[in-house]
Amino acid sequence: MFDGATRTLSPFRTPHRAAPSLADTRLARLPFLSADELGALKDCAASRQPVNACAELVREGVPADRLFFIEEGWACQYTTTRDGRRQILALSLPGDVCDPAALLLGQRDSGIRMLSSGTVLSVPRNRLVALAAAHPGITRAFTLLGFVDNAILSRRALSLGRLFARERLAHLLCELAVRLGYAASSGTVTYDMPLTQEHLADALGLTPVHINRTMQALRRERLVESSRRMTTIFDVAVLRRIGGFQPDYLHIDALEAGTPAERAAAHGHGLNLLHEKR
Amino acid sequence: MFDGATRTLSPFRTPHRAAPSLADTRLARLPFLSADELGALKDCAASRQPVNACAELVREGVPADRLFFIEEGWACQYTTTRDGRRQILALSLPGDVCDPAALLLGQRDSGIRMLSSGTVLSVPRNRLVALAAAHPGITRAFTLLGFVDNAILSRRALSLGRLFARERLAHLLCELAVRLGYAASSGTVTYDMPLTQEHLADALGLTPVHINRTMQALRRERLVESSRRMTTIFDVAVLRRIGGFQPDYLHIDALEAGTPAERAAAHGHGLNLLHEKR
DNA sequence: CGCCTATTTGATCCTCATCAAAGAATGTGG
DNA sequence: CCACATTCTTTGATGAGGATCAAATAGGCG
Question: Which among B89, B105, B276 has CB closest to A147?
Fold first, then answer.
């Protein structure tokens, strides 16, 4: 069942009791960071806070004075219309940086809230700005994560604009599997999925009722199963075909260096790198 | 009819016959660029090419070996499903950089094609990478434009996922007005709109037929008018209310320094700036 | 056990898609 | 400058995907 050609993201396991550190975030896994920059990330003071499900980390439209990093649990970035319709713009999984673009923009167009209970790291924006100003690799890290978020949102826009409910849901379930580290392009995958059907609806531009019926259809066909918070995709290959899922847009190879050789290469002077070291 | 509180983007007028230069793009208007960096942009060799409507600048999914800048005409960034459904992800207007994120990512998830005839500037990616590596302000410029594109796409995702056709269309017409330099939040505005109803449909996740009927409804209510390629919004305030349009997400103030004082301030040490000069 | 939230089900309505074809523009070549 | 081709817009009829409303059932948790 293992597909040798697939790249895998390493999952983030939460180092309980350890001092809060940005070294445990996706940021610190980017292959082009120097040892110096990694050290700076590790040393950057961050405050850890446990948060309840539904906790609002950032209200919509306020200045971005802090950035959040997910240690445990899931969060989302969202916007709402005047009359309360909500659209989830991004899902933040453990290890992810919430809205990395806020580092540069300084103003938020969207809110951020937890979708499950968990713990987050919080760092004042100006501290990160100083860090980024001193370390080009860190600037580039935020930029890269922001652009990958953009790529994910682009794919979601195709979903929202042009796919049927069934396709949207299939695509999202496939995407989440890969982002959680299950990159196999066939076989069976099970993962913890704390989203309610209402969350799925807000992410996919549908109603909870219709998510429910769509999910039932997939279950009836023995394509997925969900009990408690665990979601199982019985046949990844089939679900990917239904959702038109192709993992390229996640830019997995840019997020982590698989082999030591790749890690070394990232420090070289390949033309695909900004601020490359000599 | 002029609303004093609104920021205006200066329109791009095409300097016919002049040597092709990146100094005529939105990139070069960013307020934080140093004189040095502006000079580097101006000196950067670029090739100008006239392009027909529907000309494909970049095919979907190919490596990004060139970047494109719109001098005249409109372009779009798009993705398609396997069976040919298309979603426009971004509209590029005169002065805009097409898919600035491609500078860093080096791979494209989407295609780029012209929506009208026009002229574009084309620069090899590695030339821009070298430029960015030498000038932090230029790196930051691409990043900022990429993040603004992201903000625009975020707002479009809300449209696609949660708005009615009428609201989506109203919002897009308002957005285009502002991006073309007509920032007035009330009164009447007329601008050249080369999009066909099919283009609008692909941008808004609807069918051409439904765009047609929705547009007719707006016309019947004397809210808009379109003859030939000119589109008129008779009452910007009302159309904005219908579309829930609020220009904040366009980050206009980050894109251009209105006053000399603001331009000077952008070079200062405000905390909202990365790589700030001392 | 009982409360609260999430999921499920049913009935009905509505927005928008689809299909087909007729007009109106725009552009091209003779 | 007109005939023709092509593209774009418009119109009509019909149907489907998904929304909405309301209420029942099932799960999780103190």
Answer: B105
CB A236 within 8 A of CB A184: yes
Q: Which of A112, A94, A115 has the alpha carbon at shortest distance from A102?
A: A112
Domain ranges for chain B, please list them. Answer: 13-147
CB contacts < 8 A (A, B): 149
Contact indicator for A71, A35 with CB cutoff of 8 Å: no
pTM of the model: 0.93
Chain A residues in contact with B133 (beta carbon < 8 A): 274-276
- Crossing angle, helix B197-204 and helix B208-220, to 10 degrees? 100
Helix, strand, coil percentages, rounded to 5, for chain A: 40, 20, 40
Terminal C-alpha separation, chain A:
42
Give A272's pLDDT tier (boundaries 50, 70, 90): very low
Rounded CA-CA distance B235/B240 in Å is 9
Query: Is there a contact between B207 and B252 (Cβ–Cβ < 8 Å)?
Result: no
Question: What residues are paired with B76 via a beta bridge?
Answer: B91, B113
Q: Which of A74, A88, A94 is nearest to A200 (CA)?
A: A88
* Residue B16: predicted pLDDT: 61
**Which protein residues have any CB–strand D distance under 7 A?**
A 164-166, 205-207, 209-210, 214, 228; B 196-198, 208-209, 212-213, 215-216
Q: Protein footprint on strand D: which nucleotides are under 7 Å from a CB?
A: 7-13, 17-22, 27-28
CA distances from residue B32 to B12, B268, B277 in whole angstroms, order as listed: 19, 9, 9
Which residue in A81, A161, A271 is closest to B158 by CB distance?
A81
pLDDT tens for B35-48 read 999 999 999 999 99
The answer to whether A225 contacts chain B (CB < 8 Å) is: no
Closest CA relative to residue B98, chosen from B81, B110, B85: B110
Instruction: Could you please state the CATH topology (level 3) that the domain comprising B13-147 is classified under.
Output: Jelly Rolls (2.60.120)
CB B17 within 8 A of CB B119: no
Please state, in angstroms and rounded to a whole number, the distance separating the CA atoms of residues B100 and B246.
24
Q: Which two tokens stand for residue A48?
A: 């850890």
Condensed to tens digits (0 to 9), the pLDDT of residues A166-218 reads 999 999 999 999 999 999 999 999 999 999 999 999 999 999 999 999 999 99
Count helices and strands (H / E) in chain A. 10, 10
